[in-house]
Amino acid sequence: MASYTTPGVYYETVDASGAAISAVRTDVAGFVGIAERGPVDVPVPVESWRQFQAHFGDVIGSGYLAYIVRGFFENGGRRCWVVRVASRDPLSGVESASVVLRQAAVTADVWRVRASSPGTWGNALTIQLRETHRAQTTALLAGSTPTYTAVTSTSGFARGTLVRLVQPPPAAPIYKVVNDVDPVERRLLWTTDRAERRLSYDAPVTGLDPAQPVMAESVEYTIAVTERGIPVAVHEGLTLIPEHLAYGPRVLAGMMAPLDREAERGTPAAPYRIAIDELRERFGSDPLMPRPALVVVGPNDLPASGTMTLEGGRDGLRLLAATDFTGDEWAPEDSDEIKAARRRGFRALGEVDEIALVAVPDILIHPIAPPQIAPLPPCVPNPCLPHASTPTAVPAPRAPIELPPVFDEEDVYRVHADLVQHCEAKRDRFALLDPPFDAAHDVALGVAGIRSWRQRFDSKMGALYHPWVRVVDPLRGTRTPTRDVPPSGHVAGQIARTDLSVGVHKAPANDVLEWAQDVTFTLDDEHHGVLNELGVNVIRALPGRGLRIMGARTVSSDPSWRYVPVRRLVLMVMKAIDIATQWAVFEPNDAATRERLRLSLTVYLATLWEQGQLAGASIEEAFFVKCDLENNTEDDRAEGRLVADVGIAPAIPFEFVVVRVWRARNELEIAEATFAGGTR
Questions:
Q1: Which domain holds residue 189?
Q2: Torsion of CA 83, 504, 435, 448, to 10 degrees
Q3: Which residue has the higher pLDDT, 589 or 218?
Q4: Were 561 and a residue from 61, 382, 525, 556 both cysteine, which residue would form a disulfide, CB within 3.0 to 4.6 Å?
């Protein structure tokens, strides 16, 4: 930019056009259901099946969520958000497995080591706690005073380091906490005259024999974590001193915290197995206060085996209710506690703006209990071999498996109806509805069940897919090699693949479904035609062509919103315009502003037309943008409204849908209406 110091005429180039409208993603899905592990009611971004396994575990008999997410990625999905649901009942709700570390000498609880997320999976975790000494040095008592100790090296020591001063037996070790380190004079300072630097542990060193050598060594702890006998994590250098940067609860809390922070930025966080809670009371900083005994946990405080098993984990499935999948609405003025209690199920996805597809498959759950393993036969010793006693094979006790209830159709309908209402309120996402279990499996009932279920819905913000799909089951064991799962995951994956490869304007249908062996209900052409007219998208096994989705209709009775690509195309356009035209807020409602808005909208829609997402042989036939004095009347301008009428012709069908954009009360608002001019 020129520096205006000398009088004269200066020329600059100024962009008078509005900000360009960028495309928005329409392939991101949101899934809500039952998982083996992971945070409850917290949306987590997932970008691969392996990543889902790391956060939420593998497939389980008590939920469909893992199958749904795998179906999504197998069919071309690239990114989704997952919310795990569970009951929060105080007595039988979800709970994390844990174990308390105690100091035997003072019978005090020190730390609680707990599983990083609730569930019975944590009961399979075992930990080993080992004392380590990462820094060692020799103390020089000749150059020391009670307030500091001279050492040969200060490497590895820092403020808050727990130090053990050891002399030859029978002298007992002395535990001290470093207040500060003087690397120049090579001293470990135990006290300080600066009030702001004092620690509650500050005290002079006493009890050392000046005639004996002294070894100073740091004291830290290493926690090794195993899951079902397989090592999964090692956390080294943990200290018991809260003022130290390596304080155990702080280190592992820092590992867990990125899940929420990264979720806000849209980047998946790495999963961890355990966290540590502090149980002891924090010491005061006043050096004049009585100092409690320094709590030290060492190998002598552990069981003889050197390992401890976490216990008490619960999945919170027995009392699972439909409200756990839906959550509840909250007002902006509600407290954080009320919002947290109501932000559950798919409403936890409400603040994730990039989500374009939503499904709640586990409201249809028909759980499968794990196969019963027969106890081991008694061990019969060889009579030819010497033996002192007869060994007995005692199988390890198996933890009881908690299964969710089977929800009736009224509960299923309430959840699906609430999901559709949620999408209508958000106006940026589309609901994928799964048929009830009986309608998708009862051959004797025929198509009557799905026809009856279809009549319950009338919305342009959802689509119903029938029947369920049959997939290879990794849990097959002694059961059948396949499992029937709702189709929403496979459908969402194919929608995402179509959006990414062609565009949102193409109907997500007539492509082969991957990771699907069969359907649960076979339909012929006659019944397919009946369901298609009703707006049910049928999944069929076609000879020589595999399993394919043969329909792309919404559950709306309005002919203008009959097709899924039309509805989703308009949603994409509305969302892109909403984001990119915020610059118009507080701008003056004059000819320049109206022209800038019209130009930015025209350029965006022309780009869509060039990509084939709009119908028409010319731009005039594909869309129109009107933003002038005719639709910005004097009354509109007096009320602070800036109105732009946008009409688009979706590729299928050739009907105009009007999107009205206006500014009111210093906010940008968007509404939609069918174009009065009819079809072009």
A1: 136-218
A2: 170
A3: 218
A4: 556
- For range 636-651, the mean pLDDT: 89
State the pLDDT at residue 402: 87
Residues 6+ apart with CB under 8 A from 589: 632, 636, 637, 640, 641, 642, 663
Q: What is the pLDDT of residues 435-464, one digit of tens each?
A: 999 999 988 888 999 999 999 999 999 999
49-91 pLDDT, tens digit each: 999 999 999 999 999 999 999 999 999 999 999 999 999 998 8
User: Can you tell me the distance from the alpha carbon of 332 to that of 259, in angstroms, rounded to the nearest whole number?
Assistant: 25
Q: What is the pTM of this model?
A: 0.85
The CA distance from 111 to 276, in Å, is 6
CA angle 363, 365, 370 (to 5 degrees): 150
Gap between the Cα atoms of 596 and 586, Å rounded: 14
Quick one: pLDDT at residue 114? Answer: 93
What is the domain count for the chain? 4
Q: Residue 164 in contact with residue 174, Cβ under 8 Å? A: yes
Please check whether residues 333 and 240 belong to one and the same domain.
no
Contact 568, 356 (CB under 8 A): yes
Q: What is the pLDDT of residues 364-391, one digit of tens each?
A: 999 988 765 555 566 677 778 776 555 5
Question: 650 with 659: CB under 8 angstroms?
Answer: no
Residue 469 shares a structural domain with residue 349: yes
Q: How confident is the model at residue 37 (pLDDT cuts 50, 70, 90)?
A: very high
Euclidean distance between CA atoms 624 and 468, whole angstroms:
42
Q: Are residues 633 and 655 in the same domain?
A: yes
CA–CA–CA angle 143, 148, 152 (5° rounding): 55
Bridge-based pairing state of the strands 220-227 and 125-132 = antiparallel
* Angle, CA of 473, 476 and 480, to the nearest 5°: 95
Same domain, 498 and 539: yes
pLDDT band at 284 (very low <50, low <70, confident <90, very high): very low
Q: Are 203 and 291 in contact (CB under 8 A)?
A: yes
Residue 84 in any domain: the answer is yes
The pair of structure tokens assigned to 601 is 């909208």
Both 348 and 488 in one domain: the answer is: yes
- Are 46 and 158 within one domain? no
122/145 same-domain check: no
Of the candidates 545, 53, 24, 563, the one whose C-alpha atom is nearest the C-alpha of residue 268 is 53
Residues in the chain: 680
**Measured distance CA(118)–CA(13) in Å, rounded:** 59
Helix, strand, coil: what percent of the chain each, to 5? Answer: 25, 25, 50
Residues 265 and 118 in one domain: yes
**DSSP β-ladder status, 430-433 and 357-359:** parallel
